[in-house]
Amino acid sequence: MKSEELSKKKFYQWLPEERREFLKNEGIELSEVDSGALDRLDKLSENVIGQVRLPLGILPRLIVNQQAYRVPMAVEEPSVVAAANHAAKIFNKNGGVVANSIRNGIYGQIVLEVSDDFDLTNFREEFPQLVELANQKFASLVNHGGGVREIEASKKANLVFIRVLVDPAEAMGANKTNAILEFLGNKLEKQVDIKHTLYAILSNYPTQLTTAKVSLALDSIGGLEIAKKIVLLSEIGQNDIYRAVTNNKGIMNGVDSVLVATGNDYRGVEAATAVLANENGTYTSLSKWNIEGDKLSGTVTIPLAIGVVGGSIKSRKDVQQSFNLLGHVSAKQLAEIIAATGLANNFSALLAISTKGIQAGHMKLQARNLVATLNATEDEKAEVLEKLQQSKQYTQEAAMKFLKEIRKDKK
Ligand code: MEV
């Protein structure tokens, strides 16, 4: 399109190629992108000019509720997949993870501004009828096994806070919940004592709580002393916010990787998880490890408002690939797999900290990233990697030094 024509349009109305051209003319270097992919991506988001890719790794086998799964993990940190896989092998030897996701629904909130004559007790009597009305209107959700489950309300000054619990069936349900809330909000503001609906939107408050548990024979983890260290670390995480937040970051390494691989809303889960970790007014670890008899037991609970349909899940080939790996899973099963993966990452971190330390494994893997940035042949990179790992020096300077040495030796 000519520049005069373009200038009449808003940036978001331009074609992705036009935006790229514009940026290139501004002197910005852009990475190559397949034009078909660019068109598809343009339909998924706004102002699209390219793509950021993540590697997709897998846990070849993680047993959850006696079923073995291939778990897709999309993450750029190599130690995350390695750590989860190490734990998965130990979990599997011990019979795998037992998990349960309570798919009770997600909350939505409607806030009404009301007049002085508003009567909350009378208003509450309308709720069964409102539930029925919404379920008639959103019959397709009901046909899929979901629907509005419950409405509650409280009043503060002239504001009425309505909480609507929506079962989204197999979806995450954000769009459907928002549609239901707007429908109810529009209906309610027509009532005499209600001035207007201030807002009607879903809440990311933690629900769909999913718990994963493992019981590990002490000899499968290196013995009683290591188990005791893991329990001590866990106790520190219950009381010390500096450790708690890092412990939880380790859990989210696994959780977010599977969320991203399956096209789920990791931002919503992250926000809800932070609230759950702070449930009693003090931020604490989401996981707990104890010695029970002759076993080390670990549990984690995570709010997982996730889905296997809806959003961009069906339209993204990369996400469909993840579902091909997982096999046919329900939202409940996927939530249980995600919580199990979070527990696997948590266990692996605690085990490493209690034994050889985190850095050893971490840096060994990080060395691959260091060599990837070298201006060298593939053979030279392989030699540099070997030298970095042998010498345990994991810096860019060391990589450069080894490359120089290799080249000198070859002259
Ligand atoms: C690193 O990505 C995550 C850990 O720090 C988690 C933890 O310390 O529990 C290893």
Structural write-up:
It is a single chain. The chain is an alpha+beta fold and 411 residues long. The protein contains 16 helices and 10 strands. The protein has helices at 3-8, 16-25, 35-44, 78-93, 120-124, 127-137, 139-143, 174-188, 224-239, 241-261, 266-277, 317-326, 331-354, 358-372, 378-391, 396-410; strands at residues 56-64, 67-74, 98-101, 106-114, 147-156, 159-167, 194-202, 209-217, 287-292, 295-303. It has a 4-stranded antiparallel sheet. Strands 5-6-4-7 form a 4-stranded antiparallel sheet. Strands 1-2 form a two-stranded antiparallel ribbon. Strand 1 and strand 2 form a beta hairpin. Helix 4 crosses helix 13 (331-354) and helix 9 packs across helix 13. The longest helix has 24 residues, at 331-354. It is globular and about 90 Å long. It binds (R)-mevalonate. The site of (R)-mevalonate (MEV) has 7 residues, from helix 10.
